[in-house]
């Protein structure tokens, strides 16, 4: 099982290179430079990827196609960026404000990730739209709607939490894949293709609260999944609503 393999520390290659002196240590607070929407689009065409640090709901309302949603509000922000983005791709930040873009690169410096930041989209998603570019959205689904759809139209559920969380309680018949295992890691290949789900199915993605699930959705959208829904409130909301769950042994665990 892929869960048995230890996950590499985020951005481990850069960390090792820094420790070996191959990448110089930063002696000053790193600063991200502003980029126009035209520059961002051109850089994306050359292989750069966007890290969208806004909330799941704001990302869902409208985002740059192909962007990774890794919320700046997460205590693991820089680690998650290191885990989820390609090791060789320049990074472009998209935040709610220019000040948050500077906060993001500052946090990324703690794991030597700042050197990959090409800049930030000045003016955020509004600037992207004003330049005439397309934005995509992700529908948000609450647990009551999910519970109803599971019993009426066969909605698929994907749980992207850690194995320990899954074992403590999950939705019956849900599929499971930890979000960090969706993409290639130093110690394991990308596991998203192993899921028994087609890209045309309607899939509700859940985690504990709705943050990691939005990150997972941003990865799945890059891989061509078409009908994805972020479960707002996640499994914490599902449990609070009193809906049934199964533990790692398949037993009902919240009655």
If you had to describe this structure to a student in words, what would you say it looks like?
The protein has a five-stranded parallel beta sheet with strand order 1-5-4-2-3. A five-stranded parallel beta sheet has the order 6-10-9-7-8. It is built from ten helices and ten strands. The protein has two domains: about 15-130, Oxidized Rhodanese, domain 1 (3-Layer(aba) Sandwich), CATH 3.40.250.10; about 140-240, Oxidized Rhodanese, domain 1, CATH 3.40.250. The longest helix is centred in the C-terminal third of the chain and has 12 residues, at about 210-220. The protein has about 260 residues and is an alpha/beta fold. It has helices spanning about 10-20, 35-45, 55-60, 75-85, 100-110, 125-130, 145-150, 165-170, 210-220, 235-240, and strands spanning about 35, 50, 70, 90-95, 115-120, 140, 155-160, 175, 200-205, 225-230. Helix 3 (about 55-60) links the parallel strand 2 (about 50) and strand 3. The radius of gyration is 19 Å and the shape is globular. The protein is about 35% helix and about 15% strand.
């Amino acid at each position: 099982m892929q869960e048995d393999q230890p996950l590499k520390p985020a951005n481990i290659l850069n960390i090792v290179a820094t420790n070996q002196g191959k990448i110089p240590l930063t002696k000053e607070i790193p600063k991200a430079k502003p980029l126009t929407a035209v520059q961002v689009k051109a850089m994306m065409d050359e292989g750069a990827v966007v890290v969208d640090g806004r909330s799941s709901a704001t990302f869902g309302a409208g985002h740059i196609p192909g962007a990774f949603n890794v919320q700046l509000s997460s205590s693991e922000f820089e680690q998650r960026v290191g885990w989820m983005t390609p090791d060789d791709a320049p990074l472009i930040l998209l935040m709610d404000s220019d000040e948050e873009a500077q906060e993001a690169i500052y946090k990324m410096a703690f794991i030597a990730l700042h050197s990959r930041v090409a800049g930030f989209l000045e003016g955020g998603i509004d600037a992207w739209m004003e330049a005439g570019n397309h934005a995509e959205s992700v529908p948000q689904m609450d647990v009551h709607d999910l519970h109803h759809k599971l019993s009426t139209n066969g909605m698929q559920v994907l749980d992207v939490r850690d194995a320990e969380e899954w074992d403590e309680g999950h939705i019956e018949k849900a599929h499971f894949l930890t979000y960090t295992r969706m993409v290639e890691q130093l110690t394991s290949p990308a596991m998203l293709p192993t899921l028994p789900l087609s890209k045309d199915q309607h899939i509700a993605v859940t985690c504990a609260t709705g943050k990691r699930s939005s990150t997972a959705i941003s990865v799945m959208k890059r891989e061509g999944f078409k009908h994805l829904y972020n479960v707002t409130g996640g499994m914490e909301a599902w449990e609070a609503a009193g809906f049934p769950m199964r533990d790692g042994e398949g037993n009902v665990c919240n009655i």
